[in-house]
Design goal:
- The protein is built from 14 helices and two strands.
- The protein is mainly alpha-helical.
- The chain has a single domain, classed as Growth Hormone, Chain: A (Up-down Bundle), CATH 1.20.1250.20.
- Strands 1-2 form a two-stranded antiparallel ribbon.
- Helix 1 runs antiparallel to helix 2 and helix 10 crosses helix 12.
- The radius of gyration is 21 Å and the shape is globular.
């Protein structure tokens, strides 16, 4: 007879399956803490790679900043690709009395803060790479556990709205982070890293105390080497809907990252803003981008839950994104570029309002939600490697090293392919 794994909520009342989830009823304030932790992780990770590290590189060695940022982003991307599904699966198997996810949320956030401290006092490229790798590993572990809670604890009937709120928190976090870095003194590098790091870690700590976690009461099957490979793989033929939803998220993420990763350098090189004041304009652009994104995220999240439709919203997103990126690629001045970024932000908001909900609805099982959502996370993490690698030859077209038009054209292609990828999905309308 095969042993069956049982999952129980962290109280003596026994297991519960409510609204299509295996978790137990959560205490008041859980959803707020969940969204806040999502905000915190987005704040620290997004700010470090989007504002803090680029600003440090621009002040350290302006001539090679693009290549150095590509190296840092690519190395960090490889690390997080390896650790995210692995930590997700390990959290599925965790038998701690604290629950499956809580230990990873707390210890991951604390470990990530150690990486932030390395970054704060870095003066050489290798130190930046090391610090970012540690931060990615720690916060990646916490992120994998937080993402798994979508399947563990969020009812299907409200999942798109909660996903929309989390995505809005992510967008707000990027603006807040950029504004923080712009407001902090230019001669206090350590503050650009420590401030977002402390905020992100504290918010993860709040979720640790607010979560009524699932506790494993029976040992999982013995770990085999084949399980290691399976951690990074789901059969695309057997799970076709999952594969196509994953491909959609991968391509749309590549489209957004192709623009956002190098946006600060675009402000400096293409718009001619001095590096000392570029962070302020960068924050303004993100504010406009995020405002449009939040509006469409909340609107389409509500529409999606009311109608049950996800795919049509992805197509709307693809069209808006293409229009905005075309305008950005040919923008002659800042006002036109801001209009373009508004359109791209609206497109991003429409997409993120449904993409996480769509992914959770094509998961193979609840029991390995951490592992499967780790594979989902790869659709966001793989572009962190591919985009910097592809950006180096694209930027080099023409010999200037600043061919941002080529980057925008690539982003348009990725976005269009992402919209087409949802066509074969059958389990989601």
């Amino acid at each position: 007879m095969t042993s069956r794994t049982t999952l129980e909520p962290a109280d003596p009342s026994g297991p519960a399956v409510l609204g299509g989830i295996p978790g137990s009823p959560q205490p008041r304030g859980f959803l707020v803490a969940f969204v806040a932790a999502w905000f915190g992780l987005s704040l620290v990770l997004g700010t470090l790679i989007g504002a803090s590290i680029p600003k440090m590189l621009a002040f350290t060695d302006e001539g090679t900043k693009g290549i150095e940022l590509s190296i840092v982003a690519a190395v960090g991307g490889v690390i997080v690709i390896v650790i995210t599904p692995l930590f997700g699966r390990l959290s599925d198997r965790t038998m701690s009395r604290l629950g499956k996810r809580r230990p990873w949320i707390l210890l991951g956030a604390i470990s990530g803060l150690l990486g932030v401290l390395v970054l704060a006092f870095s003066t050489e490229l290798w130190q930046v790479v090391l610090g970012w790798a540690i931060a990615q590993t720690g916060y990646g572990a916490a992120n994998a556990a937080v993402h798994a809670l979508l399947a563990d604890q969020i009812r299907t009937s409200i999942r798109a709205r909660v996903s929309a709120a989390a995505s809005a928190a992510n967008a707000i976090a990027l603006v807040v982070g950029a504004a923080l870095v712009a407001a902090l003194p230019n001669d206090r590098q350590w503050t650009w890293f420590v401030v977002p790091g402390v905020i992100g870690t504290m918010l993860c700590g709040i979720l640790f105390f607010a979560l009524h976690d699932i506790v494993r009461t029976e040992r999982p099957p013995r770990w085999r080497w084949s399980d290691v490979l399976a951690t990074y793989w789901l059969n695309p033929v057997r799970y076709r809907d999952f594969f196509w939803a994953w491909a959609c998220r991968l391509l749309v993420t590549m489209s957004i990252l192709t623009v956002s990763t190098y946006l600060l350098f675009f402000v400096i090189d293409r718009l001619g803003v001095p590096k000392e004041s570029a962070s302020g304009l960068f924050a303004t652009i993100l504010f406009i981008f995020t405002g449009a994104s939040i509006l469409t995220t909340l609107a389409f999240g509500w529409i999606s839950d009311r109608t049950g439709r996800r795919k049509a919203i992805v197509w709307i997103s693809a069209l808006l994104s293409a229009a905005g990126l075309v305008l950005a690629a040919v923008a002659p001045d800042l006002p036109v570029f801001l209009v373009a970024m508004t359109l791209v932000g609206a497109a991003q908001g429409a997409f993120v309002s449904v993409d996480i909900a769509m992914m959770t609805e094509v998961l193979p099982t609840f029991e390995e939600a951490g592992k499967d959502l780790g594979i989902v996370a790869l659709s966001y993490q793989v572009p962190q490697v591919l985009v910097p690698v592809l950006a180096i030859p694209l930027l080099a077209i023409g010999g200037s090293g600043q061919n941002y038009s080529a980057l925008f054209i690539a982003a348009i292609v990725f976005g269009a392919l992402g919209g087409l990828a949802v066509l074969p999905i059958k389990a989601v309308r």
